[in-house]
Amino acid sequence: MTRPIKISPSILSADFARLGEEIRAIDAAGCDWIHVDVMDGHFVPNITIGPAVVKALRPHSAKPFDVHLMISPVDGYLEAFADAGADIITVHPEAGPHIHRTIQAIKALGKKAGVVLNPGTPAKMLDYLIDEVDLILVMSVNPGFGGQSFISSQLRKIEAIRMMIDKTGREIHLEVDGGITLETAPLAIAAGADVLVAGTATFRGGPDQYAANICALRGE
Ligand code: DX5
Ligand code: ZN
After folding, report:
1. What percent of the chain has pLDDT above 90?
2. Of the bound ligands, which one is closest to the alpha carbon of residue 147?
3. pLDDT value for 2
4. Measuring from each residue's beta carbon to the nearest atom of ligand 1, which residues come in under 6 Å?
5. Separation between Cα atoms, residue 110 and residue 113, nearest integer Å
6. Is residue 1 a part of any domain in this protein?
7. How far is the CA of 37 from the centre of ligand 1 (A)?
8. Domain coverage including residue 196
9. 7-30 burial code (b ≥16 CB/10 A, e <16)
10. Domain-embedded: residue 71
C-alpha cells in the first residue's frame, strides 16, 4: 500500500543564529511539517528551546508546527506551547505521572496529541492510548541529539504499530524520528511510517539543497 509521505525537518540541525530564515527556507523547499525539538537538560541530556522561541518562529511559516516535548514534568508547559503556536504536541509517557491525562489535556487545548515511544519502550504501551491519539512517534534513536545512527530494531516496532493503527480504522499518523537518511527512510516507510523527521538529512548542504534533500527523503 502506498501512502503519502510527509517530511518534518527537525530544526535542531538548522543554523540557530538564523532560525526564522531557516524555517522560511524549508517551507519554500516543500517540507510538510516543522519539527521542533524541545529539551530540558533533565529528561534528556541536552537543552534547546522554549515556548518564547516557538512563538517568535510562528509567523515564519503557516505549516503545522510538530512540537516534540522532551521535558519533565511536562504537564505544566502544555498550555505555553499551545499558546505559542504548536499544532501537534507529542509527549513521552515517561515525562509525567499520567500519560492518558496529559493526552486529554493536549486535546482540551484544541491541539493534535501525539505519544512518543523511546527505543526501549514497547508498542504495548499504546494499548489503552491508541484510541486517544492523533499521532504515534517512534524514536529510532535515544532522544537528546541530532546526527545519531538509526536503531534498526525499531523497524519491528513500526510494523507492529502500523498493524495496531490499521485495526483501529482511524487516521493516526505514524512518525519516525532519528537517524533518517536516504538509506533508512525507505526502510521506515516500508515498515509503515508516513511521517519522517529528518534533521541532518534535511539541512545537509545548505539552503540550496533543502528542496532536493526533502524530495529524496520522500523517495521522489
Ligand atoms: C532527537 C530528536 C530528533 C533529532 C533528529 O532527540 O528528537 O528530532 O533532531 O535528528 P537527525 O535527523 O539528525 O537524527
Ligand atoms: Zn524530535
Report:
1. 98
2. 1
3. 80
4. 10, 12-13, 35, 37, 68, 141, 143-144, 146-148, 177-180, 197-201
5. 9
6. no
7. 8
8. 6-218
9. bbbbbbbbeeeebeebbebbbebe
10. yes
